[in-house]
Amino acid sequence: MSVKRTKKPSNAVPSRGRASLSRLRRVSEATIQRTSPRELRGLPDDFWAAAHVVEPVAKQPISLRVDADVLDWFKAQGPRYQSRINAVLRSFMTQRAASRRKAG
What we know:
The protein is mainly alpha-helical. It has helices spanning 21-25, 29-35, 68-76, 81-103.
């Protein structure tokens, strides 16, 4: 019988996706401006003023049938196409709920 390790050793270096907060705190504003994507440069100072934190919710795996051209379009937009499909459905749901509240 073999023993399989199920936990990382406590001294393991964080994997991809884990930010080094101490390194981020040392980054200058000039470096942030220089390295930020073009679409984020020149945002007004109050751009994030009305932003709110959206906590991720648990996803439920399902089987969903969609038209081939719809799926192809979402896939052509790049990785995480399933998350984008979910975002579109959430937007539709939110708008519908809001319009029903106004009508009721």
